[in-house]
């Protein structure tokens, strides 16, 4: 399994490229702000051919470059229907102050959703790039937040791409429009804490961690 990543943009949102091995097809997870060059670098370095973009949620720092990446490679973006409006109107997912900053950034330019969008659902299994990827709807940070899970193999534990649901030592904020604290706690319990301790967590920001480490040390998970 090949998983390469880099932090993209001012908010350092993690963008991941995932493939069975070098020289194979791949998927790209969360190409955010200023991610296009980083994606191109990883594709060239590992000789990868992208077949899909997977979006964990619709916030601008995770989807900013999705349309450009999809157009460049003629591939579809996968996202939950509840967050699809954010792909073309990022201001809907943030507070008014940040929305004003986004308007200043974009000017007259409008963010567009990718030409091809595939809406994912809870429990759906995607067969992409030779990978089996299971979708878990995990609302709370946004209504359409999802986690993408890769099953364990003989050599590797299960891997979760958690977006802004779970971080090392923290969880996603719920004070933006569409956020719901009770919902994110239910999602953390159902989607994350139901996994084995060796499950690898690849979050939307910050370093990777494991379910076992977060179960033992993350103060936001106490009592779940």
Automatic annotation (TrEMBL):
Name of this chain's protein: Hydrolase
GO molecular function, one term: metal ion binding
Domain of life: Bacteria
Keywords: Hydrolase, Metal-binding, Zinc
UniProt entry tagged with the keyword Lipid metabolism: no
Organism: Thermobifida fusca TM51
InterPro entries given in the database record: MBL_Glyoxalase_II, Metallo-B-lactamas, RibonucZ/Hydroxyglut_hydro
Taxonomic lineage from the root: Bacteria, Bacillati, Actinomycetota, Actinomycetes, Streptosporangiales
PANTHER family given in the database record: HYDROXYACYLGLUTATHIONE HYDROLASE GLOC
Keyword Disulfide bond included in the entry's annotation: no
UniProt-listed SMART domains: Lactamase_B
Metallo-beta-lactamase domain residues: 12-205
Reported cofactor(s): Zn(2+)
Classification via CDD domains: metallo-hydrolase-like_MBL-fold
Entries under Pfam families matching the protein: Lactamase_B (PF00753)
């Amino acid at each position: 399994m090949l998983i390469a990543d880099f932090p993209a943009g001012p908010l350092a949102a993690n963008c991941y490229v995932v493939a069975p091995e070098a020289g194979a097809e791949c998927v790209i997870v969360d190409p955010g702000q200023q991610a296009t060059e980083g994606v191109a670098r990883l594709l060239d370095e590992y000789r990868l051919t992208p077949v899909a973009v997977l979006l964990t949620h619709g916030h601008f720092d995770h989807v900013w470059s999705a349309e450009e990446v999809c157009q460049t490679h003629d591939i579809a973006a996968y996202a939950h229907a509840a967050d699809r409006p954010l792909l073309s109107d990022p201001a809907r997912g943030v507070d008014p102050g940040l929305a004003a900053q986004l308007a200043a950034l974009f000017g007259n330019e409008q963010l567009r959703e990718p030409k091809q969008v595939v809406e994912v659902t809870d429990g759906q299994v995607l067969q992409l790039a030779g990978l089996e990827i299971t979708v878990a709807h995990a609302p709370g940070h946004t209504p359409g937040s999802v986690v993408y899970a890769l099953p364990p193999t003989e050599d590797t534990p299960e891997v979760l791409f958690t977006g802004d649901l779970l971080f090392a030592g923290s969880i996603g904020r719920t004070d933006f429009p569409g956020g719901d604290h009770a919902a994110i706690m239910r999602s953390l319990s159902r989607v994350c804490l139901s996994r084995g301790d060796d499950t690898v967590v690849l979050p939307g920001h910050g370093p990777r961690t494991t379910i076992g480490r977060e179960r033992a040390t993350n103060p936001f998970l106490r009592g779940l």
